[in-house]
Amino acid sequence: MAIIKGSDYLERINKLQNEVWIGGEKVTGAISEHPAFKGIMKSKAALYDLYHHSDKKDLLTCWDEKTNEYHSFSYSQPKTKEQLRNRRQATQLLARESGGTMGRSPDYINTAIMSLGSGGAGMPKPYGDNARKIFEEAREKDFSFTHTFINPQVNRSKHYMEYSNEKIIGAKVIDETEEGAIIHGARLLATQGGITDQLLVLPAGGNFIEPSFVYGFAIPSNTPGLKFLCRESYAHGKTSSYDYPLTSHFEEGDAVVVFDHVLVPWERIFIYSDPSQVQTMYDETNMNVLLLYQAVSRQAVKSEWLLGLSEWMVRTINVVEHQHIHEKMSEMIISLEIMNSLLIAAEEEAQPNKHGTMIPDIRKLGAACSYYQKTYPRLVDALQQIGASGFISLPSEADFHSSIKEDLHQYLQAANEDAYERVRMFRLAWDLTMSPFGSRQTQYERFFFGDQVRLSSSLYMNYPKEPFVQQVQSFLKKR
């Protein structure tokens, strides 16, 4: 199979009959037709179809001489800087289909699976072998993944640990059998939970982790006892591409994952019980670096979109002559140039790891991630200030097809657009920044890859500062 089509993806997920709950009801029938999931699943299917376009196939697919098949670029191990750049260009091609708003396009977690496959040889046996087999199956079948790596927010004190087996909250190992480990409890934040082939479970962070909470595995989304409890959908009833141009197509959904005495086969486990294996896995695979590379590539595209949308608004309402507008637009430009520069620098300073994977420079990517966490909300605020009151009284598409349409065309026109196109543009900007979908986008980018303070602290603690200290001290010694 190797490269699936959009129809294959939809058919496969429908057949899985994953246990998905939303709005107080269990999803029955074809999940791809459910109002909460129809838009995002159709958009994902469109991404899979891009792989079969003759003008995009060279970028989005890679030929594997061992299997004599084409595979998704996201499952291909980059071994040269050129292959790394091609990977970024492919990620950005997919990201431009959604303006960077689909945080979990298939290539994101595929990247994690690829890193497990390429770095598994350095992990303890049999777990490294398991990681390699998980990767090979995913590549062959072109699986899609959601993932979870956070325990429920019961008590965020750094000294809090959950010991009781009487009332389990965070998912933990409660038993072992010949077939595998029994997992019971919950995990958070599976974006697109229930609409993927598989679930990747990564170890939770923290310095005080009981062995029963230390595990990493990948299982089918329809594994018995596995449930996805979805938050309220922002897309339910939002079918108009005019009124909700982003929500109606790219609302991914987020879910709490419940493990109700789930049996995880031993051969699907790549980390188990030993906390030291967690750091070994990240060291051998460079998973976080490669995931950051994908994410920063997507965020650069999002910056392109914010710049383009803001400039369209500036021209439409004819405020281009005002200096405070220039200041806001210049921040859009600066953010885009910074993100692109850090991406290119990360590629130029990439080095192969011991498994032959070309790894982009983590310092540049860490700086980009921390920068964007703080910058994206400011860019959203700038766009809102440019549009000002224009965001407040926006009619719907239905209004333009009603008896008041002439009034709307007369009174809502702009300097350089008619009323219908002006409102279309404003509704896009509103959906990106002010709708429930847009508010989630801001929160998502604000906390992407972790808390801002912790990421900044990590950047500071791990950055090689000593050469610069010595440079300054050497200067004084010469005087």
From TrEMBL:
Species of origin: Halalkalibacterium halodurans (strain ATCC BAA-125 / DSM 18197 / FERM 7344 / JCM 9153 / C-125) (Bacillus halodurans)
Q: Which Gene3D superfamilies match?
A: 4-hydroxybutyryl-coa dehydratase, domain 1, Butyryl-CoA Dehydrogenase, subunit A, domain 2, Butyryl-CoA Dehydrogenase, subunit A, domain 3
What GO annotations for molecular function exist for this entry? flavin adenine dinucleotide binding; oxidoreductase activity, acting on paired donors, with incorporation or reduction of molecular oxygen, reduced flavin or flavoprotein as one donor, and incorporation of one atom of oxygen; oxidoreductase activity, acting on the CH-CH group of donors
Q: Which PANTHER family match?
A: 4-HYDROXYPHENYLACETATE 3-MONOOXYGENASE-RELATED
Keywords, in A-Z order: FAD, Flavoprotein, Oxidoreductase
Q: Where are the transmembrane segments?
A: none
**What InterPro entries does this protein map onto?**
Acyl-CoA_Oxase/DH_mid-dom_sf, AcylCo_DH-like_C, AcylCoA_DH/oxidase_NM_dom_sf, HpaB/PvcC/4-BUDH, HpaB/PvcC/4-BUDH_C, HpaB/PvcC/4-BUDH_N, HpaB_Deino-type
Q: Which SUPFAM superfamilies match?
A: Acyl-CoA dehydrogenase C-terminal domain-like, Acyl-CoA dehydrogenase NM domain-like
A GO BP entry: phenylacetate catabolic process
Return the protein name.
4-hydroxyphenylacetate-3-hydroxylase
